[in-house]
Amino acid sequence: MNGGVMVTGLLFDYPDGRTALNGLDLSIEDGERVALIGPNGAGKTTLALHLNGILRARRGEIGVGGLEMTEENLAEIRRRVGLVFQDSNDQLFMPTVREDVAFGPANLGLRGEELEARVVDALEAVDGLEFADRPPHHLSGGEKRRAALATVLAMEPAVLVFDEPSSGLDPAGRRELIEMLRRLPMTQILITHDMALALELCTRAVIVSDGRVVASGHTGEILRDADLLARYRLEFPHAPNPGMPLHPG
Question: What is the pLDDT of residues 73-114, one digit of tens each?
Fold first, then answer.
């Protein structure tokens, strides 16, 4: 399934009158892994909620794999675009992880062996079979993040949108997550303040500020531009080595 994303002229105002998206344009190729970076309040999470149809723009167009975001296509768009929220508790609400992972496919009508196979495949993708029958609230932070990811993978999305994937994870959990995301073949959009993660995982970085895309390019090139980062209140935790590759291998 094509996971290309096209966003054109997106405008969105919150009820308090604040403009969150101000004519935002963004194009992402099928299978590309892109980091969305920018200061707090730039519109990154608002954009993510539009890609899945949770929020609807005042003006502009969104397409996923050539399918336009319309009322008629909304259910299919939501199946194609999987959101993994920053707080895993927002996605884990059933008595066991297995039931959480089965929830979405069951709502699509899957039953019996087909449903079980979908659940097992999603849990295997996150190395989560070992905690499949445990209550989500008994999991560690890293395990919850993996379980939340499995609930999204069970829907077999073409696009994975991750809001602050490394937030709250210890170094081991962060490394496990990076390796899992590296293995996943679908288009990935990572909203993150973790510049080292962006550099390691993403071939392209896109800076969003004041509801618009203000810079886009190879991640290494973007993160080496100290003036550009400073202009948008971003900072790499250490200066990237001049010999560092321009994008992940």
Answer: 999 999 999 999 999 999 999 999 999 999 999 999 999 999
180, 128 Cβ separation under 8 angstroms: no
What is the reported pTM? 0.91
Give Cβ neighbours of residue 31 (< 8 Å, ≥ 6 apart).
Answer: 3, 185, 186, 187
Q: Which residue's structure tokens are 């999204």?
A: 152
The neighbour count for residue 213, using CB atoms within 10 Å, is: 20
Buried b (16+ CB within 10 A) or exposed e, 149-176: bbbbbbbbbbbbbbbbbbeebeeebbeb
Question: Are 153 and 122 in contact, with CB atoms under 8 Å apart?
Answer: yes
Distances in whole angstroms, Cα of residue 17 to Cα of each of 13, 20, 74, 187, 212: 6, 9, 26, 33, 17
Please give the structure tokens belonging to residue 23: 């004519």
How far, rounded to the nearest angstrom, does the alpha carbon of residue 220 sit from its chain's CA centroid? 20
Over the stretch 7-27, which tens digit does the pLDDT of each residue have? Answer: 999 999 999 999 999 999 999
Domains and CATH numbers, the chain: 5-231 (3.40.50.300)
Distance CA 26, CA 36 (A): 11
